[in-house]
Structure formats: structure tokens, C-alpha cells
């Protein structure tokens, strides 16, 4: 049985012009021609075309494809082994590429999407994602964590500047309050504690008062959080914890 050039082009997903070119350079010469001189391809020709297209898919130039196919010292089984080796290597390469793309997509979708230069401009020497892996391990399966990541991924550099400016302003006011000897149970301290809760709720995830109370305990028990808040003013971490508890009590009473 033989096939026309148009049929073969349809089978193989190539153009008629490509088949004409392969014929012209001797890479795939059809076994027959009809009385009108039109090309006719046999099953053997289709098998050779399949191997040509395989090597082309792997990036081999046509002259190397011809050399591989026409090597008299290579038997069909050797061709199959060679194709298997090349295909396995291609799969491994594509898997690595796919993994890299997935990581890039995840990085774009989740977390703070700023260049290193922009991060330094916004946060200075502080790394806002220094403890991201730990946070993901502790809270990664919670809706609050997922929501914080979704929101963070949408923020621009200007958004982060505004958020950071609010944090700095709050810290200065709270430090001044502690320095002035205000009690954690006082209205001013509770108002700043409420502002702290609303800041997290506005930009990251909704924080009920009971959750905020747990955060207050963590700000003292975790040395890293304690150092962060105490850097604003000595003793501020404990003061904030107590103010958060007092604020939660007045809102849940």
C-alpha cells in the first residue's frame, strides 16, 4: 500500500513542502512514483519519516539525522536504544524545566513580589520573609496563612512602603507611650493594641481578638518577636502583650 504526499503530510503533521524538501536532499525519497510522476510513500517510508521527525524533535540538524539513519553499522534495535536514551534524557530535562517554571509561578503567586533592590528600599536590612519557611511549617495549612500570601502577592512596592510607614509610625507612638509610663490597661495603650490588630487584619488576614491575644503571648515567648518589639523601646513586648489582653477583654466582655 502506498500513500500520496498529501496523505503523508496529514499523517505526520508536517507540510507538503517539508516532504518535498526531504526528497530533494535525499533524506526521505519516496519509494514509488505514479504514472504522472507524483510521489507515493510506502509503509517503510513512513517508518523512516517517523524516525526523522523524532530526531528533529530532539534538535538534530538534518545532516546529522541522515547520518544516523544511513549508518550501515547501526541496526534497528540500536536505533531504538538510541532513541530511548535520547528520549529519557529529554524527559529529565523537561521535568527539571517544568519544576523551575512551577517554582517561578509559585514565587510570583505567593509572597512578597519585589526585587532585591526594592526590598532593601522598603525594608532596609530587615528581611520580611526571613522566617517564611518556619511560618509555612507552623501555619501553612491554615486559611489565615493562605490569605496572607494571596494578599501579599498583590502588593506593589508603593503598597509595601505605605504598610511599612504605618508600622514605623505605630512603633514610634507606642514607644513614646511606654516611655511616658502609660499603663497597658489604659485607653491609649488599648487603642494602639487595637490599631495593631486592625493593621494585620487590613493587610494580611482577619485577626479576631482571641487570636490577637495568642499573638501577644508569642511576642514575649518567642525571642525573635520580643527582640523586634523591644528594639522599639525596652519592655515594649511585655507592655504590648498586656495591652492586647486588656483590649481583647474590653471588646469581648
- Spatial shape: rod-shaped
- Counting DSSP H or I runs of 4 or more residues, the number of helices is 13
- The proportion of residues forming helix, as a percent range, comes to over 70%
CATH class (first level) name of the largest domain: Mainly Alpha
Q: How do the SSEs run, as a string of H and E?
A: EHHEEHHHHHHHHHHH
Tell me the strand order in the biggest sheet.
1-3-2
Quick one: CATH superfamily of the largest domain? Antibiotic binding domain of TipA-like multidrug resistance regulators
CATH topology of the largest domain: Globin-like
Q: In the residues, how many domains can be counted?
A: 3
Assembly classification:
single chain
In total, the number of strands is 3
Keywords: Activator, Coiled coil, DNA-binding, Transcription, Transcription regulation
Organism: Streptomyces cupreus
Pfam families: MerR_1 (PF13411), TipAS (PF07739)
InterPro entries: DNA-bd_dom_put_sf (IPR009061), MerR-type_HTH_dom (IPR000551), MerR_fam (IPR047057), TipA-like_antibiotic-bd (IPR036244), TipAS_dom (IPR012925)
